[in-house]
Amino acid sequence: MWTRSAHRDHEIAKAGLKKFIPVDAQPCLICQQTPSDPHHLKFAQPRALGRKVSDEFTVPLCRPHHQDLHRHGNEKAWWANMQIAPMPIAKQLWDASQTGSQEKAAVLPHPSRTSTPEGSQHECPFNTAPTLALPAELDSLSTPPLLLPGESLEKYELMRHAIFADLVPRSVIEWLLAIDVVELSWEIQRYRALRHKLLDHYREKAIEQTLRHIDLAELPPEMEDAARYHIRRNARIWRVDPTAAREIDVRLATYGYDSNAINTQVYLQARDVFLAFEALLNKM
C-alpha cells in the first residue's frame, strides 16, 4: 500500500541517490581506481540511534580500500595513516552534487607512492589528498617553527598535517586550538628528545663517578691523575661501545653497583634540570 510515509521515504531515497552520483563517478581517493563505493564519514557527526551519517559527509573509496577501512576499525587513524583529510573533499563533493557539476566534484589527490590494502586484488598508487589548508587570515598566527640543530622541518610538517587531518577544524576557534595542539605536541617531542640526551649525559657522569669510588680507593696519590684520565675514557667508551659497556656493567655489578644504583645517581644528578623542563612545560 502506497502511504504518505512511504512516498516521503521514496522521495528521500531518490534525493540521496542524486547526491551519491558525483561520489560514485569519482575514482577512489586512495588509488584512483573505479568504480567507487560511497563511504560515509562516521566521525563527521554524532550518530542518532538507528540513523546513518548524512550523505553530506560522503567520499569515494574503491571496494578493497572501503573494506580495508572497515576492517581497521579506527576511521580517524586510518585516514591519518593515508595522509588524507577527507572532510574538505566530502564538502567539495557535496557542494558539487547540489549544483550538478561533475567538473567541480573532481577532487583527485596526487600520486606519490604505492599502497595496497591487505587482501585486495590490484596494486594501487598511494595518493596524498590536498593538505587541509590553514585559512589565509590565520597564516600570521602559525609562523614556521624555530627549529633547533638536528630537528627536521619535514617531520614538523608531517605532524602538523596529521593533527589537522585528525581534528578537521572548521571555525576560527577550532583552527586556533589546532595550531596550539601542533605547537604543544612539537614542544613535547622536543622535550622527550632532549630528556633522552640528558639521561645519556648524566649516565656517563654517574658511571665515571662510580668508577672513581672503585678505582681510586687505596691508590697512591701520584697515580690518581692517570687513573682519573682512564676513568673518564672508560666512561666515554661505555657510551659508544656496547661490548665495553657490558664489561663495565659487569665490573660495576661485582662491586654492588647494579643498574638501579646507577639510575638513582643519574636522576639525582639530573633532577634540577628535569624540574626546570617541567616548569617550562607547565607554563605553556
Blueprint of the fold:
Blueprint: H1 4-25, E1 37-40, E2 58-61, H2 63-72, H3 75-81, H4 86-99, E3 110-114, E4 125-128, H5 153-167, H6 172-215, H7 224-240, H8 242-254, H9 259-282
Antiparallel strand pairs: 1-2, 3-4
Helix pairs in contact: 1-4, 3-5, 5-6, 6-7, 6-9, 7-8
Structure overview:
By secondary structure, the protein is mainly alpha-helical. It folds into two domains: 1-130, no CATH class; 132-284, no CATH class. It is built from nine helices and four strands. Helix 1 (4-25) crosses helix 4 (86-99) and helix 3 runs antiparallel to helix 5. The N and C termini lie far apart (65 Å).
Strand content range = 5-15%
Count of β-strands: 4
CA radius of gyration: 29 Å
Structural class: mainly alpha
Rough outline? elongated
Quote the distance from N terminus to C terminus: 65 Å
Q: In order across it, which strands form the biggest sheet? A: 1-2
Low-confidence stretches: 1-21, 102-131
Individual helix count = 9
Helix content, binned percent: 55-70%
Oligomeric state of this protein? single chain
- Provide the succession of SSEs: HEEHHHEEHHHHH
Major sheet description: 2 strands, antiparallel
Q: What's the mean pLDDT score?
A: 75
